[in-house]
Amino acid sequence: MDQEQRQAILDHWHTLAESMPSNDMTNSLITEGILSPNDLQEINAKETENKKNTTILTKILASVSPDCYAIFIDALRQIPNKNSRLADMIESRFKKQASADYRSDASKSKNLSSAHKRQTVDQLDKLPKKCSRSMTQEHRKMLIDKRILLTQKCQDQILPIYEYLLGTNVITSYHKQTIESKSTAFEKVCTLLDILPERGDRAFDEFCKALTNFKITVENFNTGVDFEDTRKDTDVTQQGSDSGLIHANQQDEDDISQYFFDVAEHLEEDWINLKLKLDNAGKIEIKNIQDKYKKNYDQAYEFLEQWLIIYGENATKKRLIGALKAIQRKDIADKIK
């Protein structure tokens, strides 16, 4: 484990200690040989979940295995009902650093060397999105705007839909396992819709094809879609190394969800006050979120996701910053400017 990876864990130590389910983590880490049976005995002897997780994290940092960090991240991604949030929270550090490095260098010179350009592309390729191209804002918005209809219409066909997406390499076997871990068809569809935006723009095209193949029609979504034209339009906007990277950075800046990790981690119980400011129409139920998740971080993140889904284009960075300042959390607002 290198120093950056160690620091990424240390930066989120409190949230990890509070939110990790120790049993799930120890099972995965023992299977992969990171923890020993003696380690498990020591962990289980701790009185509280927080103390157990603190012991796990301490042993992770002390491990000499070169694969320890990757195995730890994979274990986090396998936690039921967490939707990879904890892993994404940790790895967001590397995404921000790569983007910041590129913008800093670009501001100094518009004529980057070819070697430097390749290095920047390599950095971005290592981000946790696991796709070669991020989904366009237009397609992300369509998934959000049609989420309710998609959830209603896909429930009966969710099995063949995700099997089709697995066969076309849009999702992985891990994603399939995550979807199948949900108890209801409704939850399975919602999980798939959460996964798609991070699987690239091809994921949108293949999802539309899956809907068409299984006779599912959602008005103004997969009706009359020319997938080749969509791909050509996207390619035109991303010609050239410089223009492609700048375009991707602009998309990142427009995607308010990139701030949700930091906001949720620092809000704690103030997420309820934030909800009262942002959800004026009262469309989001506090009790439903509290019943679903027990930790403040998960509750805050769930609220922010629901706010984005329900309010769509009205869920803006400007509104989020204004609401944070209104509840006396300027410290968080300053982090997302």
From TrEMBL:
It comes from the Eukaryota. Residues 1-78, 135-211 form the CARD domain. Pfam families: CARD (PF00619), Death (PF00531). GO terms for cellular component: cytoplasm. GO terms for biological process: positive regulation of apoptotic signaling pathway; signal transduction. CDD domains: CARD, Death. Gene3D superfamilies: Death Domain, Fas. Transmembrane segments: none annotated. SMART domains: CARD. InterPro entries: CARD, CRADD, DEATH-like_dom_sf, Death_dom. This is Death domain-containing protein. It comes from Trichoplax adhaerens (Trichoplax reptans).
